[in-house]
């Protein structure tokens, strides 16, 4: 603000004085307003802001003192110079005590007056400037305080001993402390016990600039006060950046360390995200169970510990039986939901400290560390697992039955490292699968390694077809009432030159997946038909040949033509051939399957539903299909031994089959007790080890020639029927 922007008012009751003062100021470049008398002066002062008033004291009506009082009362920020004819000391004193800047007597000395005026104006200008700066400072501080306190980060200053001298309000929402209560307290009261070391390093940061601590992660404690509702966690992960504060920063000699300034950012959200990502890396997303990576991690730890403590541990490999069927027939959504439900039930079987993992698909692995009693402990858990899976699962209104095949390997007996334990548990599991599923078994060295674990199956199967490594075995099917052999089921075997006999369970699922089953299936059909023709040609009793057919093969274009071609080639009547398909084959493409089955049926070929009861649980499709036989799955027959359960299912199937005028074959009959029960409920046919395992064609030939039939293994008095000569 320059001098001539300042406002001056001259007050006197004498117009001559007014004019002379105004002129005097004008000669020095100052403009001024004038007021005749006190009343006019007050009116001017009320209208405009003045910086300086030259004021006469003695005026009629409203004198100079009255004007001074008014200025005082109105708290006007201006300087007053008294220019008065009054000469008494008291007058001067009174004026000064009322706040006058100076007192000049009339007649005044021009120079003296101008010096006083200039001084007063300068002083006022400085005062105004100061005020402005102060208010700017206040404003700026207010802004900074606002910024600091509304910052999403905790901002603090520590003195050189680590005590808070400032901390922003954010601490309140984040940790539940009042920022004021922390001032004077040592930073360590906020730090999580385990992060004290790292905190010491950042909270004592003396460096500045690029070398100062950046983004160090540590945990702060929330105020231990249950009335705070802000937090559910008692610690808060933060990321801290800090730097030293110095006095005389620019002068190395005088520079002194004052403390540390720091910013702490709440990184809870990021930590949660990181935890989620970590979780996902080590868990199966469908079931939330640990995945292969985590199991391997835990297993290797458990092995180290078992070694050190001289303990045993067990690895259980668990595969759901026929899960693929459910997935194929009811879809992945149902399959996924079922896996979730299964994993929940499995979890209920394990002890604290055990790890249940999902290896993908329907494979689960269970790590049982510290098994004090060895096998006994493990058997209990395996039995419990089979038990909890027994009740049906309700998925999307489907009543689904699930069982599991469990293989077990024990450290150190069956392996001392991770790979061998997992592999041996796997082999044991395949042994269960091969021999009836729904059971558990401990690994033993005489178990054969499944072929596909060792060699490329695909090339192997190609070679097998070329080199004639396949052959068929035939398992007798018996009429329960008469004991006659009424049919045989052709079962495929692979004699591998190096791996010996490989069971269909080991390569058929793979052959189905790759489509090679079509070629294999053709081979089976032709050879079975050739064998049947041979038996007929040598005059053996007429029997039925059952041939398993996979969905993939039935889906082949021209399959019906192919089969009728074979019947012609081998001169066979249609009714001596029975095609076995599973429920899932039917469900895979119902319309096309029905169409093909009807065409086959027209040629006289019988259709049987294999493994009945294990697939899609709806029975409503049965009457739509041209079928003659239901083969009750071995799993149900197995239950008969256990008296209390299972029987009702067989009973129902047999009764239902009778109602639909269907033939029923009970599969996997192994004991007399089972047979007795089947007789009791009037089941028509049976197949199983009790009557004979799958046998070579030659042995079947001999059996068919004998009369009456004596099973080679059991010696029960069953006999063949209808000798043709
Ligand atoms: P499947 O058609 O249900 O055949 C019955 C299976 O049960 C056979 O196993 C048989 O050896 C076994 N078995 C029979 N009686 C008993 C018994 O009393 N106790 C026990 N524990 N098991 C018994 P295998 O020969 O290993 O065949 C397994 C599966 O492989 C067959 O089940 C069938 O689905 C499939 N398969 C076999 N041969 C062929 C084939 O030529 N083509 C197709 N597509 N699949 C085949
Ligand atoms: Mg079969
Ligand atoms: Mg079967």
Your description of this structure?
The protein is α/β, with parallel strands linked by helices and 725 residues long. It folds into four domains: 3-132, Rossmann fold (3-Layer(aba) Sandwich), CATH 3.40.50; 151-273, Beta-Lactamase (2-Layer Sandwich); 283-443, Reverse transcriptase/Diguanylate cyclase domain (Alpha-Beta Plaits); 458-705, Alpha-Beta Barrel (TIM Barrel), CATH 3.20.20. The strands form five sheets. The protein has an eight-stranded mixed β-barrel with strand order 18-19-21-22-23-24-25-26, surrounded by five helices. α2 (37-47) packs parallel to α3 (64-73), α11 (323-330) packs antiparallel against α12 (332-347) and α19 packs parallel to α21. The chain is rod-shaped, with a radius of gyration of 51 Å. The site of one magnesium ion (MG) has 4 residues, from β23.
Helices and strands in order:
Elements: E1 8-12, H1 15-27, E2 33-36, H2 37-47, E3 52-55, H3 64-73, E4 79-84, H4 89-97, E5 102-105, H5 110-149, E6 154-159, E7 164-167, H6 170-175, H7 179-182, H8 196-203, E8 213-221, E9 235-247, E10 256-266, H9 268-282, H10 292-309, E11 313-320, H11 323-330, H12 332-347, E12 355-358, E13 363-368, H13 375-388, E14 393-395, E15 398-400, E16 404-411, H14 418-434, E17 439-442, H15 457-466, E18 470-479, E19 485-496, E20 500-502, H16 504-514, H17 517-537, E21 544-548, H18 551-555, H19 559-569, E22 577-582, H20 583-588, H21 590-602, E23 606-612, E24 629-632, H22 634-640, H23 647-659, E25 663-666, H24 672-680, E26 685-686, H25 697-705
Parallel strand pairs: 1-2, 1-3, 3-4, 4-5, 16-17, 19-21, 21-22, 22-23, 23-24, 24-25, 25-26
Antiparallel strand pairs: 6-7, 6-10, 8-9, 9-10, 11-13, 11-16, 12-13, 14-15, 18-19, 18-26, 19-20
Helix pairs in contact: 2-3, 11-12, 19-21
